[in-house]
TrEMBL record:
Its biological purpose: Regulatory subunit of serine/threonine-protein phosphatase 4.
SUPFAM superfamilies for this protein: ARM repeat (SSF48371), PH domain-like (SSF50729)
Annotated Gene3D superfamilies: Pleckstrin-homology domain (PH domain)/Phosphotyrosine-binding domain (PTB)
GO terms for cellular component: nucleoplasm; protein phosphatase 4 complex
Biased composition (Acidic residues): 760-775
A GO term for molecular function: protein phosphatase activator activity
Gene Ontology terms describing biological process: DNA damage response
Name the UniProt record assigns to this protein: Serine/threonine-protein phosphatase 4 regulatory subunit 3
C-alpha cells in the first residue's frame, strides 16, 4: 500500500510571483554523490520520474508552515515548496532538514536563530547601533547590500530600523532618487528599488509614517517603478496623478480628513499594485502595512461620523428629487463605501456608527432610493441595506412597523425589497438570492428581542403576515391557478410573466424555501395563512414542473409540514387530498432512482415510522391501489401493515384496553428486572424443569402489588390456554407464571402484527388429567407435551 505520509505536491514560484504546481509524488531524503550531501528527492507517483533533487544546504533558510508545508529558496527569485498530504510526513522530513543543519526540530524557521555565541550576541546587543554608509550616489550599492543582509536577522533588522529612523536616512535616499531620475542613472534607480523594498520588509510603523507622508509618498512610489527584473519602468505615478481622480461628492472642509483619504488610497494602491507579490518568507513582514491601512480606515470613519454637517448634507441630497441621476449615483456609492469601511471597526465603534446613520435617517433615504428606476443605484442601496440588516435587524423591523401606520402597503420598505426580488432581471437571480437572505434574517425569531413590556416576535410577525406576506406569495398564487399561465402579475414596478422557464422557477423556488423556513420557525401565523389561502395545494402544483429542483422544493415544503405532526395540518391535507400530486409525481417519475424518488419514499417512510395514524389510514384508503405494486422498498407494505393493525385494534377493544392497563405507570416494573426475567425464560431448558418449579421467581414488587395484579390474573385465567402465532408457527403455552411479563411479550408481537389470540381446544384425555392435577398446584412451566403445529 502506498505510504501517504510522504505524498507531496511540489511547487515553484514563477516570475509573476505565483506558485506553479510541478506535480505530485513521494519525497525521501538520501545522500546524493553528485551533490555531495544529503538531499530531498521527490519522484512522481505516475511514472517514477524525478520531480525534485535538492541538496539540504546548511545555510539555507527552510520554513515550516501550517503543519504540512515546507518552503525555501534555492537561489535568488527561485522559491520551492513541498505540500504534504499528512502532518506526520512533514514532521519526518523537517527533522531530517534540522538534523543536517544542526537545528532543533521545534523551530519553524531553521535560520531564524542567530549563529553567534551568547557572548558575541550580548556584545552585539550592547553595541551602540548599526552604522550606515554615507547617503551618496556612489555608496548606493553598499547600502542595498547592507539592507539585504540585515533582513534575515531580527536583531539586525531592529538596529537598521533605528538607524534609518534616527538619521533621517529615508528623506536623503529620496533626494538621491530625484537626482538619479534626472540623470537617468538606471543602476542607481535599481539599487534604490531594492533599498526601498527592503525598508518595507523591516515592518516598522515609524518608517511608514515618514514614507507615506504627503511630501514623500510619490517619490517612494517612483522608486518602486524601477524593478530591475523588468525591461521598462512602470508608470504608477502617472496613473495616480492623471487617471485616478478624487471626487468629493460632498465638499470636505477638514484638510486633515482629505489628506488621510488620499494617503489611504495611495498606500492601498502600493500594497495591491506596486509591491511585488511577497514570497512565503516575506508575508509576515508586511503585517504592519496591513495594520497601517486598517487604522487609517478607522480614523476616516470616525472623522466623517463626527462631521454632522457633512452627513446632513449627504442625506439631504440623497433624498432630494432635484438631485440629478449621476450625482445621486455618486452619493449612493460613497455611502456604500462608507458602510464597507465600517466593517473594520471594533464592535462598540460600529454600534456608534450605525446609530449615527440611523439618527440621520438612513432607512427613509434608502426607501426613496429603492423606489427609483436606476438599476445601479438600487443595487448599491441594496448593499447598504444588507449592512444594516446584518448589523441590527431589530432596528430595521422597528422602522418598517412604524411606517406601516402612515404609509400604504405598496410603498413599505420591506415590500419594496420583495418587489425588487420578484423583478430581478439577472438570469441567475443573484440579486434575488441576496434579498431573500435579508428577508429570512428579518423574519427569523432567533434574532428577535423579548422584553417585559413587549414581544418583538409577536408584533413583527403579525405585521408581516398582514402587510407583506401577500406580496411575497403573489407570484406563487398567480402561477399555480387552473388558468393557463398566460396572465401577467402586475406590480408597481414591473410585469412578472408567468411560465415554467428557468428564471421563473428559480424565483418560485426561493419563495417556497422562505415559506418552508416560516413553517419551521413560525407557529399559528403561517398555519393560519397556509390553511386559509390553501398554500400547500398551490405549492404541490409545482411538483409537475419540468425543473426537478422546483419539484423538490415543493416536496420539502410538504415534508416540513408533515414533520410537525400537527393534526390541524393533517386534517387539512386529508380534507383536500393533498397526497394526490405527491403520488402522481412519484408514479410519473417511474423507476428512475433520483432525488424525487428518494424524497417521496422518505416522506411516506416518515409517516410509517412515526405511526401518524390519521395520515396512514388516509394514504392506504385512497392510494393503496396505485402504490401496492411498489416492492423495491417495504415502505408501502409497511404502511398497509400499520393500517391493518389499527383496524384490528378498533375491532378488538378488549386488547386495546389491556394495552392501556399495561401502559399505566402503576403496573410498570423495573426495566432491568424484566430483561433478566426474559433472559431466564428463553435460556431455561424445559427438561431441567420440575413440576411446581417457577421459571421466573416472583419479585418482591410483584408480591407487594398482588392486589393490583388481580385484574390481569383474572384475564389471564380466562385465557389460560393461548396460542402465540409467529412466522407461521404456533406455540401453545399451557399456563403463565408472570402475567405481566407474558402480556408484555404478547403486546410486543401484537404491535408487529405477527400474533393472534385464539383458544386452543383439548385434544385428549391425558392433557385434561394433567391440567386437573396441575390446577391444584402452582402453574408448571411448558412441558414436552405442549402442542407444536404449523
Amino acid at each position: 500500500m502506498t505510504d501517504t505520509r510522504r505524498r507531496v505536491k511540489v511547487y515553484t514560484l514563477n516570475e509573476d510571483r505565483q506558485w506553479d504546481d510541478r506535480g505530485t509524488g513521494h519525497v525521501s531524503s538520501a545522500y546524493v554523490e553528485r551533490l555531495k550531501g544529503m538531499s530531498l528527492l521527490v519522484r512522481a507517483e505516475s511514472d517514477g520520474s524525478l520531480l525534485l533533487e535538492s541538496k539540504i544546504n546548511p545555510n539555507t533558510a527552510y520554513q515550516k508552515q501550517q503543519d504540512t508545508l515546507i518552503v525555501w529558496s534555492e537561489a535568488e527569485n527561485y522559491d520551492l515548496a513541498l505540500s504534504f498530504q499528512e502532518k506526520a510526513g512533514c514532521d519526518e522530513i523537517w527533522e531530517k532538514i534540522c538534523q543536517v543543519q544542526g537545528k532543533d526540530p521545534s523551530v519553524d524557521i531553521t535560520q531564524e536563530l542567530i549563529d553567534e555565541s551568547e557572548e558575541e550576541r550580548f556584545d552585539d546587543m550592547s553595541s551602540p547601533g548599526l552604522e550606515l554608509p554615507p547617503c551618496e550616489l556612489s555608496r548606493l550599492e553598499e547600502v542595498a547590500e547592507l539592507v539585504a543582509s540585515s533582513l534575515p536577522s531580527p536583531l539586525r533588522r531592529e538596529k537598521l530600523s533605528l538607524a534609518l529612523e534616527n538619521e533621517g536616512y529615508i528623506r536623503k535616499l529620496l533626494e538621491l532618487f530625484r537626482v538619479c531620475e534626472d540623470l537617468e542613472n538606471r543602476e542607481g534607480l535599481h539599487h534604490l528599488y531594492d533599498i526601498i523594498k527592503g525598508i518595507f520588509l523591516l515592518n516598522r510603523t515609524a518608517l511608514f509614517e515618514v514614507m507615506f507622508s504627503e511630501e514623500c509618498i510619490m517619490d517612494v512610489i517612483g522608486c518602486l517603478e524601477f524593478d530591475p527584473s523588468l525591461p521598462q519602468p512602470r508608470r504608477h505615478r502617472e496613473f495616480l496623478t492623471t487617471t485616478a481622480r478624487f471626487k468629493e461628492v460632498i465638499p470636505i472642509s477638514d484638510p486633515e480628513l482629505r489628506q488621510k483619504i488620499h494617503q489611504t488610497y495611495r498606500v492601498q494602491y502600493i500594497q495591491d499594485m506596486v509591491l511585488p507579490t511577497p514570497s512565503v518568507f516575506e508575508e509576515n513582514m508586511l503585517s504592519t502595512l496591513h495594520s497601517f491601512i486598517f487604522f487609517n480606515k478607522v480614523e476616516i470613519v470616525g472623522m466623517l461620523q463626527d462631521d454632522e454637517k457633512f452627513l446632513t448634507e449627504l442625506f439631504a441630497q440623497l433624498t432630494d428629487e432635484a438631485t440629478d441621476d449621476d450625482k445621486r449615483h455618486e452619493l449612493v456609492n460613497f455611502l456604500k463605501e462608507f458602510c464597507a469601511f465600517s466593517q473594520t471597526l471594533q464592535p462598540q465603534n460600529r454600534d456608534a456608527f450605525f446609530k449615527t446613520l440611523s439618527n440621520m435617517g438612513i432607512l427613509p433615504a434608502l426607501e426613496v432610493i429603492l423606489g427609483m428606476d436606476d438599476v445601479q443605484v438600487r443595487g448599491a442601496a441594496t448593499d447598504i441595506f444588507s449592512y444594516l440588516v446584518e448589523y441590527n435587524p431589530s432596528m430595521v423591523r422597528e422602522f418598517v412597523m412604524q411606517e406601516s401606520q402612515q404609509n400604504d402597503d405598496d410603498i413599505l420598505l420591506i415590500n419594496l425589497i420583495i418587489e425588487h426580488m420578484i423583478c430581478d432581471t439577472d438570469p441567475e437571480l443573484g440579486g434575488a438570492v441576496q434579498l431573500m437572505g435579508l428577508l429570512r434574517t428579518l423574519v427569523d425569531p432567533e434574532n428577535m428581542l423579548a422584553t417585559a413590556n413587549k414581544t418583538e416576535k409577536t408584533e413583527f410577525l403579525s405585521f408581516f403576515y398582514k402587510h407583506c406576506m401577500h406580496v411575497l406569495s403573489a407570484p406563487l398564487l398567480a402561477n399555480t391557478t387552473e388558468e393557463k399561465p398566460s396572465k401577467a402579475l402586475q406590480t408597481s414596478h414591473c410585469v412578472f410573466v408567468l411560465s415554467d422557464d428557468f428564471q421563473t422557477c428559480q424565483l418560485l423556488a426561493l419563495i417556497v424555501e422562505l415559506l418552508t423556513f416560516c413553517v419551521e420557525h413560525h407557529t399559528y401565523h403561517i398555519k393560519n395563512y397556509i390553511i386559509n389561502k390553501d398554500i400547500l395545494r398551490r405549492v404541490l402544483v409545482l411538483t409537475a414542473s419540468q425543473h426537478a429542483f422546483l419539484a423538490l422544493c415543493a416536496l420539502r415544503f410538504m415534508r416540513k409540514i408533515i414533520g410537525l405532526k400537527d393534526e390541524f395540518y393533517n386534517r387539512y391535507i386529508m380534507r383536500n387530498f393533498l397526497f394526490e400530486p405527491v403520488v402522481k409525481a412519484f408514479l410519473n417519475n417511474g423507476s428512475r432512482y433520483n432525488l424525487i424518488n428518494s424524497a417521496v419514499i422518505e416522506m411516506f417512510e416518515y409517516v410509517r415510522v412515526e405511526d401518524v395514524k390519521s395520515l396512514t389510514a388516509h394514504i392506504i384508503e385512497n392510494y393503496w391501489k396505485a402504490l401496492e405494486d411498489v416492492d423495491y422498498v417495504q415502505t408501502f407494505k409497511g404502511l398497509k401493515l400499520r393500517y391493518e393493525q389499527q383496524r384490528e385494534r378498533q375491532d378488538n377493544p378488549k386488547l386495546d384496553s389491556m394495552r392501556s392497563i399495561l401502559r399505566n405507570h402503576r403496573f410498570r416494573r423495573d426495566a432491568r428486572t424484566l430483561e433478566d426475567e426474559e433472559e431466564m425464560w428463553f435460556n431455561t431448558d424445559e427438561e431441567d424443569l420440575e413440576d411446581g418449579e417457577a421459571v421466573v421467581p416472583p419479585s418482591d414488587k410483584m408480591k407487594s402489588d398482588e392486589d393490583l395484579m388481580d385484574p390481569i390474573s383474572k384475564f389471564m385465567e380466562r385465557k389460560k390456554r393461548t396460542l402465540l402465532q409467529h412466522a407461521g408457527g404456533i406455540i401453545l403455552m399451557s399456563s403463565y407464571y408472570d402475567p405481566l411479563f407474558v402480556c408484555k411479550m404478547l403486546l410486543t408481537l401484537l404491535d408487529g402484527g405477527l400474533v393472534g389470540l385464539v383458544d386452543y381446544p383439548d385434544d385428549d384425555e391425558e392433557d385434561e388429567d394433567e391440567e386437573d392435577a396441575d390446577s391444584k398446584e402452582e402453574s408448571p412451566p411448558l412441558s414436552k407435551k405442549s402442542k407444536l403445529s404449523s
